[in-house]
Specification:
By secondary structure, this protein is of the alpha+beta class. It contains six helices and 13 strands. It has helices at about 1-10, 10-15, 30-35, 40-50, 55-60, 125-135; strands at about 65-70, 75-85, 90-95, 100-105, 110-115, 120-125, 150-160, 160-170, 175-180, 190-195, 200-215, 215-225, 230-240.
Length: about 250
């Protein structure tokens, strides 16, 4: 169980960094829909940035403090989660699972680290460090292409009964990912990733649901994870923007 929870919490920042702001947008083109012509990746990503509030609104946010809960139904476990993020890429996460322990992770701008009951305190390196840094980029969604060597629209599918465009994204390191954007709203509604953990590569599917407005932008207040180890959900309870956060919050523990 501790192994499953360790992997679970490693995906937490990935989720919250893409629990993005959403505003309804018109469909790209009815002519495109009729002809089944796929839009270019730039068109899909531009609509996504507009859907999450646009460049200007997002860049006004320089810090974010989030309080949430994690729910693991199969194990009848839950607990509080706190996430602190600060421009450009600092973050700190702590989740407390009753009868299991605390799971912490952070990035201070140079050093990435994690602390959990199974693995103890670790300083991250390699692909794991790269993935951790990207999760903490508070404006990372505004230019997704910079993190990938190639992005391509591969076709259409359905997620939760809604039409989506599938974008295949190949990073300079690691395994190809798939992002699913709602054809009507432009929102990112699913993201398939492979998270690097001490136990090995771990495929993880993230579903983004229940969007709500917070300070002019919208966030997915429910993020559901599906994996071979089981499913769990992160539910946001409170989000505050532009809160003063001491840089010491992000430092690796002594």
């Amino acid at each position: 169980m501790k192994r499953t929870l360790t992997i679970t919490l490693l995906g937490l920042m990935a989720v919250l960094s893409v629990s993005a702001q959403a505003l309804q947008q018109p469909s790209i083109s009815k002519e495109n829909d009729r002809a089944e012509t796929m839009p270019g990746v730039d068109q899909v990503l531009d609509r996504f940035v507009n859907a999450i509030g646009g460049q200007a609104a997002n860049k006004k946010i320089t810090s974010r403090v989030t309080r949430a809960t994690i729910e693991i139904p199969a194990a009848s476990l839950s607990g509080p989660v706190e996430i602190y993020a600060k421009y450009p890429d600092k973050f700190f996460t702590i989740a407390t699972i009753e009868n299991v322990g605390e799971f912490k992770s952070g990035y201070d701008g140079k050093t990435g680290w994690s602390l959990d009951p199974q693995n103890g305190l670790r300083e991250l390196s390699g692909i794991e460090l790269v993935q951790t840094k990207r999760r903490g980029e508070i404006h990372g969604l505004l230019d997704l292409k910079k993190n990938f060597s190639r992005m391509e629209v591969k076709g259409k599918d359905k997620v939760s009964g809604r039409d989506v465009y599938i974008v295949e994204a190949v990073p300079p390191e690691g395994t190809a990912q798939k992002l699913y954007f709602d054809t009507e709203s432009g929102l990112l509604v699913r993201w398939d990733i492979v998270t690097v953990t001490p136990q090995g590569d771990f495929p993880l599917t993230n579903y983004f649901e229940d969007y709500r407005e917070v300070g002019g932008v919208k966030l997915a207040f429910s993020v559901r994870f599906e994996s071979a180890a089981g499913s769990y959900t992160i539910k946001l309870q409170e989000v505050k923007h532009n809160v003063a956060i001491d840089d010491a919050k992000f430092n690796k523990p002594s």
